Amino acid sequence: MSISHKSLKIYNSLSSKKEDFNTINPSKVGMYVCGPTVYNKVHLGNCRTFISFDLIVRFLKHIGYDVRYVRNITDVGHLEESEEDKIQKRAKIEKIEPMEVVQKYTNNFRDVLNKFNLTPPNIEPTATGHILEQIEMIEMIIENGFAYEKNGSVYFDLMKFSEKFKYGKLSNRNLDDIINESRELFGSDEKKNPQDFALWKNATSSHIMKWKSPWGYGFPGWHIECSAMSHKYLGKKFDIHGGGMDLKFPHHDCEIAQSEAVYNQNPANFWVHTNMLTLNGKKMSKSSENFILPENLFNGNSELIEKGFEPMVVKFLMYQAHYRNTLDLSNESLLAAERGYKKLMQSFFDIDNLHPSNNENIEYESIIKKCYDAMLDDFNSPKLISHLFEISRIIENVKKKKDFISTKSINELKNYMQVFLVDILGFSIDSNENEKIEESNKLISTILEIRDFSRKNKNYEMSDLIREKLNSLGIKIEDS
Ligand code: AMP
Ligand code: ZN
Predict the structure, then answer these.
(1) Among 13, 42, 359, 438, which residue has the fewest nearby CB atoms (within 10 Å)?
(2) Ligand 1 pocket at CB < 6 A
(3) pLDDT of 179 strictly over 80
(4) Mean of the per-residue pLDDT values for the chain?
């Protein structure tokens, strides 16, 4: 089936509309995604954002784009309200070097994303490795008259900027809204206006992570690293800039302002934001202590979730929601995802055992087209998955000899399922998985036989116990 990348539409947070995706260079995509701050273990909310961008990268590649995917590592801590750097604070707690903190949690981040089988970025730059580039960019902003130095710190002058540009394009905030909301409460006494944000902060003697700059020893502000690194690797203008919804303001609005102050233009054509993973209806986050670590979900060690779930099942759940919608993590949603994932995998393996026939009566091309249309419409993975279940039903009917399929179609279906499940959704299919599924089916049949035996012998206590136990594993028994 020939699909044209010309028909891809992506929702652009800048215009709040789906737009035709046209790239700056033919067949090439430059994409920058804000990475994690490595002062702690990543939680499943963070993972959802990177899992969403993996789908985007994989699909862009599948439809023929040559993608340069840049995702940074923020290894300079940002100041909290207590004026303490998060990484330095963690180093004190763990009694290790700040750079050890950074290494430890960068390793954790990569391990977790590997478990989810995510494509590594082409470039993974670190903030500490690009201090020079950040200083250079700050110097250009000062030169252009949009920043000022005070006591060894440099602030972005939002009043000056607003004379020429509009600030808050992504969040639609105006300067007055920002006064009350700014995350940067510190340094207010040195700023010309409270809305101004730090490009460089003067370091006190107790501050460990600091660098020499034209303004004395200090460290970069939060937003400048992404501007400096995205421009370094993707040029003055690139195709996609992404991150979680919560980064629109102030982080991304500040990035836009910094690029406009230097290059007179918005750095990216498309701004893509992923929605939040919630737990008990509230955003998953470390600060509110409303979070689950991936390892605890995989091992079944979470107090909130009854049992362990494999990374691919968790990823399947994430793709059952569109990336711009919120998704709530719960026992029920995970159990349903587990059933769904196993069913699709079972169908995938079943294709190999289908018996070909000369009188084919199935039609699947229209479903394959719907699968592509779903993805071309702003990467609609839940729709894609619902169409894959339609294919699964066809396979089941052929298996039950209700319908008939030709050898050519068996091969084509196998290829398409491989494309959607492995290449695009990125499920890592273990070659032993088929055997595992068959083994577990045999085990379940044996347990059901024992239950039938108990019922026949009026041992209802035992039969109810078996039903309850299977139920808690997501296996529902219906006595007919
Ligand atoms: P941070 O390390 O806090 O900068 O977060 C790394 C990425 O995870 C950012 O793109 C955030 O927007 C994203 N993120 C944080 N919490 C969640 C959540 N609950 N759901 C989805 N993405 C999140
Ligand atoms: Zn960023």
Answers:
(1) 359
(2) 34, 36-37, 45-46, 48-49, 243-244, 246-247, 276-277, 283-285
(3) no
(4) 93
